[in-house]
Amino acid sequence: GQQVMQIPQYQHVQEGEDFTTYCNSSTTLSNIQWYKQRPGGHPVFLIQLVKSGEVKKQKRLTFQFGEAKKNSSLHITATQTTDVGTYFCAGLRVGEYGNKLVFGAGTILRVKS
Amino acid sequence: KAGVTQTPRYLIKTRGQQVTLSCSPISGHRSVSWYQQTPGQGLQFLFEYFSETQRNKGNFPGRFSGRQFSNSRSEMNVSTLELGDSALYLCASSLLLAGGPDEQFFGPGTRLTVL
Q1: Which of A22-36, A94-108, B19-33, B52-66 has the lowest mean pLDDT?
Q2: Shortest CA gap B72–chain A (Å)
Q3: Which of the residues B9, B32, B48, B104 would you substitute to probe the A interface, choosing the one with the greatest number of A C-beta atoms within 10 Å?
Q4: Using beta carbons and an 8 Å cutoff, which residues of B are at the interface with A?
Q5: Which of B8, B16, B40, B72, CA to CA, is 20 to 30 A from A74?
Q6: What integer pLDDT is reported at residue A97 of this predicted model?
Q7: Is pLDDT at B89 greater than 80 in this prediction?
């Protein structure tokens, strides 16, 4: 099962509204990556966060990594129709048998114009 | 640089058959990972290969196997197909850094339908 929980599963917003998706891990993560998958496409890397409490911005997108490195969020300000897609977080877990990237189930974003 | 390529793009098989999927990573990338994507389960990690060695494995039955060649190209095989194996199979390549897999570059995927 999923070891990185991502919520919400779906989000429908009116164009111009804000959107946030959250990721939570039961264990500490070495880093967290975020991906976007457009309908019919494949996941595309957005960003990687490494440091505790790190915040990064890409235009209207703001990414945060929690102080305990167990949670992360992606916030989109003033959504546009081009933001439609599924947003995945992926946490890097260091384990006894090596490092593994564990994906959340994704949040599907729909934007109504 | 050419992106990650996967063949075939679409495949229809019947229960009990086996299938082999192929992935060519970005030139210079030696780490190749495979994921299964289904609507209800998101991206499930299958396995990761680096320098022809399987470094990590997800929680899939032994019917799922893979290998990597000296040129970093990778194949995955599913034997005795079941209806539940219908999914999009994604391959991703990355540079392997000291701390673990870096940014994953995904291929377009192979859409497998099992009838």
Answers
A1: A94-108
A2: 19
A3: B104
A4: 33, 35, 41-45, 48, 55-56, 90, 92, 99-109
A5: B40
A6: 62
A7: yes
Residue with the larger pLDDT of the pair A31 and B99: A31
pLDDT tens digits, one per residue of A83-96: 999 999 999 887 66
DSSP string, B2-61: ---EEE-SEEEE-TT--EEEEEEPPTT--EEEEEEEETTTEEEEEEEEETTEEEEE-S--
Size of interface A-B (CB pairs under 8 A): 60
Task: State whether A98 and B56 contact (CB < 8 Å).
Answer: yes
Tokens of A27: 């264990």
List of residues 6+ apart from A105 with CB closer than 8 A: A2, A5, A6, A9, B41, B42
Nearest-CA distance from A6 to chain B in Å?
A: 11
